[in-house]
Amino acid sequence: MRQVVLTAPKQFEVREVPVPEITETQVLIRVRAVGICGSDIHAYYGEHPFITCPVVLGHEATGEVVKTGKKVENIQPGDRVIYRPQKICGECSLCREGRYNVCKKLEVWGCQDTGASSEYYAVEKELVYKIPDHTGYGEGTIIEPLAVGVHAVKRGVSGVKGKKVWVIGAGTIGNVVAQSAKGLGAAAVMVTDVSDYKLEMAKKCGLDYPVNIKNEDAAQVMREKFGEDGADVVYECSANEKALNQALDIVRKGINIVIVGVYGNRAAVNLANVQDREYSLVGTLMYTEEDYLEAIGLVRGGKVDLKALISKEFPLEQTAEAYQYIEEHKDDVQKVILNVTAQ
């Protein structure tokens, strides 16, 4: 089968490798679509702090089950599925607490271990989930980042229903965080960015207040839309030091600011404001199974629009061209999908 390897920054190689053999507790998936994630882009540039080359990317992937092991129940050939790309130890204190998304030995397939940028992929049965019938393979890949959004939203507030939410950054992660918040009952969501393209996409996805901060003042718009108290919680999805510090300057005291974006470099943060205004800076990483199932539920219930996020599609063998396209269209591209056709 074909498999695409990032051998060095900005260098891909298509290789022929054997189709994986499955164990009695695994399923074999014929991969149909792989989403290109922001972390993949960081790896492509050699800037991801936790991914090194060579690596087979692809932690957002959907496909069709073609074979199951003897001990696999409730999943059968023909099922349309997505997988949860978490490899955990199951033994550390964090795993025992149910926080296995931050397992001490966590490896993410497509980041620290082999991902799904290939024609077939073997996965443990407990990590495989059926995608809703009305969901295409391409849009289905976005269930994975949607689960990231669901988890992030819950890290910010114990219950988002009725809350006023500010999301910084209208890229894919910012969009799915905002859609998750809205789908889970937020009263209103403001999304800020400098890209008209991404903000227009946010508008198409039903988000309340897309704001281009090149043209409008975020603090003023927030007061106009949310009232004098402003946002109840902030989600920083841009990985932009300036944007984070702006939030620390203008949001009301005592709220949570969730760091969702992956910072490639150390950020200079105004900790004086954090201390003086009693902000809580909260980290968030991936998701748990509960978040994954909740994300699938949002899709099944029509609470989110994932298809609107797809800007362009390429065949798997044109992976290098897909990444080059993203590099050349930073301001007018959102989600790029690699379609896989077995030969």
TrEMBL record:
Keywords: Metal-binding, Oxidoreductase, Zinc. GO terms for molecular function: oxidoreductase activity; zinc ion binding. Pfam families: ADH_N (PF08240), ADH_zinc_N (PF00107). InterPro entries: ADH-like_C, ADH-like_N, ADH_Zn_CS, ER, GroES-like_sf, NAD(P)-bd_dom_sf, Zn_alcohol_dh. Its cofactor is Zn(2+). Residues 7-338 form the Enoyl reductase (ER) domain. The keyword Zinc applies. SUPFAM superfamilies: GroES-like, NAD(P)-binding Rossmann-fold domains. Belongs to the zinc-containing alcohol dehydrogenase family. This is Putative chlorophyll synthesis pathway protein BchC.
